[in-house]
Amino acid sequence: MPALAIVLAALVLTEEPTTIPVCNTDTNSLEKCRPAVTGNNPPPPGNECCLVLRAANLECICRLKSYLPVLAIDPSKVQALLSKCGSTTIPPACQALKN
């Protein structure tokens, strides 16, 4: 898992778009959701973000929650994002994010 944090941090710092498959999606696609999970007053997710989340393995993504702050993602906003995208089943690992 520490190697994953290094890879994710490197992706944030690179200037050229680089994609790495993570949890049935790629990191560039997940970027479409970044505005909805960062900052004090994030905007609602866009349709593209919700499409990405529907295709992703959410249980897998939420298990990586300890690495989300490396990407400037507020873990407590992830569960709200899933609800805003109409996810009716929120995986147990994602439910624990608000704690």
TrEMBL record:
<dbReference type="InterPro" id="IPR044741">
    <property type="entry name" value="NsLTP-like"/>
</dbReference>
<dbReference type="InterPro" id="IPR039265">
    <property type="entry name" value="DIR1-like"/>
</dbReference>
<dbReference type="GO" id="GO:0009627">
    <property type="term" value="P:systemic acquired resistance"/>
</dbReference>
<dbReference type="InterPro" id="IPR036312">
    <property type="entry name" value="Bifun_inhib/LTP/seed_sf"/>
</dbReference>
<keyword id="KW-0732">Signal</keyword>
<feature type="signal peptide">
    <location>
        <begin position="1"/>
        <end position="19"/>
    </location>
</feature>
<feature type="domain" description="Bifunctional inhibitor/plant lipid transfer protein/seed storage helical">
    <location>
        <begin position="5"/>
        <end position="94"/>
    </location>
</feature>
<protein>
    <recommendedName>
        <fullName>Bifunctional inhibitor/plant lipid transfer protein/seed storage helical domain-containing protein</fullName>
    </recommendedName>
</protein>
<dbReference type="InterPro" id="IPR016140">
    <property type="entry name" value="Bifunc_inhib/LTP/seed_store"/>
</dbReference>
<dbReference type="Pfam" id="PF14368">
    <property type="entry name" value="LTP_2"/>
</dbReference>
<dbReference type="GO" id="GO:0005504">
    <property type="term" value="F:fatty acid binding"/>
</dbReference>
